[in-house]
Amino acid sequence: MPGTKGFVREITLPQVHDARGDLTFIEGGTHVPFTIQRVYYLYNVPVDSERGGHAHRELEQVIFALSGSFRVKIDDGYDTSEYWLRDPRRGLYMSRLVWREIDSFSQGAVCMVLASHHYDETDYFRDYSEFRAAVAQ
């Protein structure tokens, strides 16, 4: 895990398939590199809306598209990249100090987020220049 530079990687979850359908499961500390403290969902998001627009001081997250698709734009203060999430078995892990923006939601998209900490407003960078200053330290 890096020091102050953010870290992003894709995660693929196991799939159990039989004639009755598919089952995917998540175990904190096994499939995601932290103990899951919070789970939340984004849904009924208008297709022209944007979510995110922040980074975290300490929190780690994994984002999944349980249904539909959306784009996640990533900025670690040095490089930018984007990921399209559309497979419920594939998630995007983000360490601390990663600025994220989510857009291009398809109709009916459901975004699930697994978080390493309970909600804490003081953990957020909501101002991009403050985020960049923290990364530079």
List the helices and strands and how they pair.
Elements: E1 8-12, E2 15-18, E3 21-24, E4 38-42, E5 51-56, E6 61-67, E7 70-75, E8 80-85, E9 90-94, E10 99-103, E11 110-115, E12 124-125, H1 128-136
Antiparallel strand pairs: 1-9, 2-3, 4-11, 5-10, 5-12, 6-9, 6-11, 7-8, 7-10
Shape: globular
Runs with pLDDT <50, length 5+?
A: none
Overall average residue pLDDT: 93
DSSP strand content: 35-45%
Total number of domains: 1
Give the % helix. under 10%
CATH architecture call: Sandwich
> For the report, how would you describe the main beta sheet?
5 strands, antiparallel
Radius of gyration: 15 Å
Distance between the termini: 17 Å
- Note the total helix count: 1
Q: SS-based structural class?
A: mainly beta
Element order, helices and strands?
EEEEEEEEEEEEH
CATH class: Mainly Beta
Counting DSSP E segments of at least 2 residues, the number of strands comes to 12
| Strand order within the widest beta sheet | 1-9-6-11-4
The CATH H-level homologous superfamily: Jelly Rolls
- Fill in the CATH topology: Jelly Rolls
Q: How does this model look, in words?
A:
The protein has a single domain, classed as Sandwich (Jelly Rolls). It starts with 7 loop residues before the first strand and ends with a helix. Helices cover 7% and strands 45% of the residues. The model has no long low-confidence stretch (mean pLDDT 93). The protein has 137 residues and is mainly β. The longest helix is centred in the C-terminal third of the chain and has 9 residues, at 128-136. It is built from one helix and twelve strands, in the order ββββββββββββα.
